[in-house]
Design the sequence.
């Protein structure tokens, strides 16, 4: 590769990173406004027109806060943990195809890559909870580990149905195979994926790792300033990623009439993100044992049965 | 009779989730509860307990007679005053300070006041940058109006003699009885 090619590649990467940061920042604003809308409030409307500069104010506040490491914390792990969370979520976006020709990488095991990164994500939260060396973060970290393991299984199994239908692990190929969006062929798979996605990103009603009523702020109790911002960023980019993956895997990605592909992709993602916000404000948090039994006794068998039916139909009907 | 067991979360899940989603969505179209405060100021009730003032009587004289009752009743000891007496017999506070950084706006001083001089007003916007600026002296407390009780004049109702009003000339007052003429 020549220097210009390197520069081009780097500038594209930078552009994607910056736009992801921006989208995540405005998602926080949008979430606060949507929550306020559904709770008879107004939400942040002071900074700039309609409060649109609120993310800037939040960021400035978090950056200018004192960088503090508790004396009882494990310094190195405490510092590394908040970096892992947004890092894995950002890295996953490399394989997400946005339009016909718009992606950073098209690897033949893209789906496995995404799943692996989302498994790595738990390390950030778990280590953050562990390294804080205090009781609430520890509980948060433990819950996070248990929750991630329980919900990763049905998630992976739900995605196998999509892989069977399209015959590929590459996200680009999966989108290309969807002349009919897979949500019509895999409705159960879609719901399982969505529920597990909410659980993976620690959103309500599955936000047990940071349950603020029981655990102060869970794994992020001892974090402040820019390190807390990194956890926060990771969570929101995670939400964005789940919405993007659901769009790519089940809703037909960039496919759609009249509008250009990017618009369709954005609209589908937006609807899913709004659903996330809507769910957050209407549901109470699950109890811990309910969470576990829901994951293992309901989602896992449902995902397995869904996979089996897909396999049988695929074997005798599509192939036959 | 046995109580009906609470249905497990699994049996209520499906309809419960949809119902709560629908209920929450309907709230998007209801009236906002938030009042955008500095832009829109709601009117406070007339008996709101806010900034404390010292009022004057209809003649324009100070109502306060410096009896120290407000200072005594104040649960946080934020009222300080020094009484003086005019040659003609009227009492008045020489100094009167209220420390609003301590005041809890309980209204006890208003209840204790025998001359309706000290009154709480519907005003709470008294932010200051320094603690010391919250200590109001007499000049800041004394207003020109009569506050909540227009027409009330302590010295015109009480049996205390002041220039221009002898004993027995007050409102609702009868002249003192001449004890010599009262003999049988």
Sequence:
């Amino acid at each position: 590769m020549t220097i210009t090619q390197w520069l081009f590649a780097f500038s594209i990467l930078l552009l994607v990173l910056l736009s992801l940061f921006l989208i995540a920042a405005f998602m926080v604003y949008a979430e606060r406004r949507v929550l306020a809308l559904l709770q008879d409030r107004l939400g942040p409307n002071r900074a700039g027109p309609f409060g649109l500069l609120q993310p800037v104010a939040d960021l400035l506040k978090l950056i200018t806060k004192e960088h503090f490491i508790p004396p009882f914390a494990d310094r190195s792990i405490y510092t590394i943990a908040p970096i892992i969370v947004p890092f894995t979520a950002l890295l996953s976006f490399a394989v997400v195809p946005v339009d016909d020709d718009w992606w950073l990488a098209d690897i033949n095991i893209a789906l496995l890559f995404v799943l692996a990164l989302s498994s790595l994500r738990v390390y950030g939260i778990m280590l953050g909870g562990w390294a804080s060396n205090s009781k609430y973060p520890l509980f948060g970290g433990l819950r996070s580990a248990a929750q991630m393991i329980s919900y990763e299984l049905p998630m992976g199994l739900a995605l196998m149905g999509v892989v069977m239908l399209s015959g590929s692990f590459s996200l680009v190929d999966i989108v290309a195979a969807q002349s009919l969006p897979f949500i019509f062929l895999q409705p159960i798979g879609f719901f399982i994926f969505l529920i597990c996605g909410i659980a993976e990103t620690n959103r309500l009603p599955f936000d047990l790792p940071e349950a603020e009523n029981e655990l102060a702020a869970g794994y992020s109790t001892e974090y402040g300033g820019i390190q807390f911002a990194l956890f926060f960023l990771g969570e929101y980019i995670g939400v964005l990623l789940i919405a993007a993956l659901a769009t790519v895997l089940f809703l037909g990605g960039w496919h759609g009439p009249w509008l250009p592909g990017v618009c369709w992709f954005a609209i589908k993602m937006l609807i899913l993100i709004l659903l996330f916000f809507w769910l957050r404000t209407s549901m109470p948090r699950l109890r811990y044992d309910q969470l576990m039994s829901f994951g293992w006794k309901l989602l896992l068998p449902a995902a397995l049965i869904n996979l089996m039916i897909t396999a049988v139909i695929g074997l005798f009907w599509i192939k036959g | 009779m046995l109580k009906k067991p609470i249905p497990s979360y699994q049996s209520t899940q499906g309809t419960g989730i949809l119902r709560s989603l629908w209920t929450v969505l309907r709230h998007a179209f209801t009236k906002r509860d938030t009042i955008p405060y500095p832009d829109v100021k709601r009117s406070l009730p007339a008996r709101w307990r806010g900034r404390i003032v010292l009022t004057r009587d209809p003649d324009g004289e100070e109502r306060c007679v410096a009896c120290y009752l407000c200072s005594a009743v104040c649960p946080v000891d934020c009222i300080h005053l020094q009484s003086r007496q005019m040659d003609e017999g009227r009492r008045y506070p020489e100094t009167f300070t209220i420390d609003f950084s301590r005041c809890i706006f309980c209204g006890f001083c208003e209840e204790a006041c025998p001359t309706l001089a000290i009154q709480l007003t519907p005003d709470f916007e008294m932010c200051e940058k320094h603690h010391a600026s919250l200590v109001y002296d007499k000049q800041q407390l004394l207003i020109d109006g009569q506050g909540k009780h227009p027409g009330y004049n302590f010295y015109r109702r009480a049996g205390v003699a002041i220039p221009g009003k002898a004993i027995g000339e007050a409102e609702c007052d009868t002249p003192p009885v001449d004890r010599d003429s009262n003999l049988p």
